[in-house]
Amino acid sequence: MKKLISLFLFLISSIGFSQTVPSKEILESWTDEYWQHGLSLLEEIVKIPNDAVYPEQIEANINWCEEQFSNRNWSSERLETGGIPILLAQKVNPNANKTILFYFHIDGQAVDRSKWNQPDPYQAVLKERDANGEWKTIEIERLENEYNPEWRIFARSTSDDKGPFAMFLTAWDALVEKNSEPDYSIKIILDFEEEQGSPRLPKAVLDYKDKLEADIMLIMDGPRHISNQPTLTYGARGIAEMTLTTYGPRLPQHSGHFGNYAPNPAFLLAQLLASMKDENGRVSIPGYYDGIEFTEKEKAILEAVPDDEQTIQTRLGIGRTDQVGNTYQESIQYPSLNIRGMESAWVGPEARTIVPATALAELDIRLVPESDPERLFSLIRSHIEKQRFQILDHDPSDEERMKYPKIVKLESKISYQAFRTSMESPAGEWLRSAMYRAFEEEPVQIRISGGSIPISPFVDALNIPAVTIPTVNSDNNQHSPNENIRLGNYKEGIQTIMSVLTEPLN
Amino acid sequence: MKKLISLFLFLISSIGFSQTVPSKEILESWTDEYWQHGLSLLEEIVKIPNDAVYPEQIEANINWCEEQFSNRNWSSERLETGGIPILLAQKVNPNANKTILFYFHIDGQAVDRSKWNQPDPYQAVLKERDANGEWKTIEIERLENEYNPEWRIFARSTSDDKGPFAMFLTAWDALVEKNSEPDYSIKIILDFEEEQGSPRLPKAVLDYKDKLEADIMLIMDGPRHISNQPTLTYGARGIAEMTLTTYGPRLPQHSGHFGNYAPNPAFLLAQLLASMKDENGRVSIPGYYDGIEFTEKEKAILEAVPDDEQTIQTRLGIGRTDQVGNTYQESIQYPSLNIRGMESAWVGPEARTIVPATALAELDIRLVPESDPERLFSLIRSHIEKQRFQILDHDPSDEERMKYPKIVKLESKISYQAFRTSMESPAGEWLRSAMYRAFEEEPVQIRISGGSIPISPFVDALNIPAVTIPTVNSDNNQHSPNENIRLGNYKEGIQTIMSVLTEPLN
């Protein structure tokens, strides 16, 4: 009897699901109905300049967002940070005991108007590609009756990251009208300083930990895999920085008088840097890659990513790659050690015949969950000491100059750590189910992205899984002039969010 | 009988010499008589701005010099070079069969007026040091009745190199009035583009080889040994330059997306440079130092130079020196390999999280007579090839990028070669005899100077010994604001030139 009841309840719930969970066809028809509404929202929000260097610009954006939430009967509150606030919006489902926390950012990169091929980077423009591959403006009114997935809307933040937020509002509006609201509660965090490195976010997450409580975090930012297939990204590398300075004579000296006598800081720096990596680009400091292993299953997932390595290498103009992993996807599973800048005295027409006083290298280290940055820094420090350098945290005094044969100043900073959610976690399975329903194909699954996003503070403070759902085209000129979003991606983005919002969680 | 006549002639000539060759005391008294005249000449010539970037400034200087020679019944002619000419002046002694060629340069370094502690860098100012070590202006008229060897005249080119030319004219004027003209003919070459690297000089020397013919060349430029004792310098290192560029991705790439994948050009450059020198600053390319050996006598001469190495190191702020030679003097007997500048992408506040597209090092190589620069370049090239770099003379094409795993662009230039006159040569002995007579002490003898001067074209084309007679104080701020000459050096410089001009040569 008990078994029968169980079966009955199971059937009821299954039937319930099949009735309320919209299929790919239904999601597509709803998207067709609402995408123009979505573009009006996008046009409206990109009109508001959003360079966080100017707080007054951000204030106008916050006001617009607050009004949107209020119009939709969401609550919202500003989480004060001592600077530009963070906006937390909520829609409680009284029947739900699960909550999803969505992350968007509303600020954008600065614009250099002279480099945009349109009068105003904050005024959306519709373009199509002509026979020569050039983007030509066409009347935006054509969207009232026409649609071409390859057309694009050009304006700052269309992709990064106002576009995804406008998609979300559109998906929400459609689902409310279709009576298909999610069976879970929603929180949304809007970051207004992401392009500035979210300097106040980590502390705010700790300060407002209780308000942010949720079960899963979904990051709505970043581009899809280069193949432009629906994508899920389960993590992002973290980032730490290091600056190394070596010392020669106190002031630059005539290279005739002191070449062969005063030690050259650029040679010292070259020797130190060269000792850190082998010819194949692998860090030669013992232990640097410790703890990184893939199961056969993980290897298969990495291999399933449809990267065309030959195309990537041709595009970059590189005849070989660093040998850290066997493939591009494998390479980003490891921490990196990258010289991002280097300088000593002058070059080119400014070059002078001197022994320089200093040489400096800026390094960045992309972190993975296995590589605690403190551990990496400690490995690097002991490696440097083994090269017989005295490590200082300041420019050497006269006394230190005379005392230590080789000196390096080491400055370091951990910007934020990596995060990575298990693909096998319930959150992962739940998202794959939603994505599969929306597109009837498996999404591209990225175990960890090479770049860094400030999400680890949430993951660490709230102790929840976090997954990124990128929607925009990868050639969107993010961070550059002529940022854009492909219409096909805009529509599929709405469809993606609808499928996530209608995926049963409770 | 023949022997007796020889003896008689020898005695006559010896007596003749002892009568006409002035002693230290006589030279000092003549100097005391003429140094104020000398300072008027100096004040007059430094008044004419002499930055060779402006040919009209140089024209005024040439005119002044031509007038000086003409007033003294010297012939002079402009040797045309296609640009700023060289001035050749001559005073033929009809009884002489030997000729000495003097070299001076009349152009000066550019001036940044804002950094000079006087209203006009071309208006000579007299200064004395106050109790705090600061230079304070005093009335130049005081020189009419007063003399203090520590006082200094401040103005551009007082030391480098109009000062020595004014000393020469002064010495000449005194000797003519004292009926003590040299027993040899004199040629003077005035270079008006030395601070520009004398770009037209090497060709002009070849073009006018016959006119320049002489037996000894004396270079009247540069500072005395730091001890400020009378100095003779028997040569100067030459100089060659090399620029190395390594390549990463065609354009800078996001270090998150491509750190561990796109080879980093700064690491490649560091590895290449590190392979060229050991930890002690010695070039590790086999053969680089070949052919350099000192006899015991030469070693003794190097050791006799009164360098205080501890003082030099403290002044430079270095706790150790490169181990190329055992002493400072030994170190400059070898060719150098110096990184004078290095650059890759951006550092400091400009630093971006990228894999740079290129990295570049500027090197200079100081040459010694044993190190033919073509041989050194060839050693360096084969060393680079052994590091498995493909050497190009241009930025790589797309095809070359894909073909060669490691590429370096190598650009090189030989500015001019070294020269070194044997200290044991007759010219060396003749000069030491003159210097000893002037000061009754042995001069400091520098086998070769670390820095470079454009003299090898003369030495090579005319096949004559060349020696530098530096006269000015080493702390003269040459090439910097507030250039000056110490009065004691100005007087001793006149005395030095008198002794050389009165030293019997025929």
TrEMBL record, chains A, B:
Which keywords belong to this entry? Answer: Hydrolase, Metal-binding, Protease, Signal
Q: Which residues form the signal peptide?
A: 1-18
Task: Report the Gene3D superfamilies cross-referenced here.
Answer: 3.30.70.360, Zn peptidases (3.40.630.10)
Domain of life from the UniProt record: Bacteria
Asked if the record carries the keyword Metal-binding, the reply is yes
Q: Does the keyword Kinase apply?
A: no
Q: Which residues form the Peptidase M20 dimerisation domain?
A: 234-387
One Pfam family, please name it: M20_dimer
The protein's name is M20/M25/M40 family metallo-hydrolase
Top-down, what is the taxonomic lineage of the species of origin? Bacteria, Pseudomonadati, Bacteroidota, Cytophagia, Cytophagales
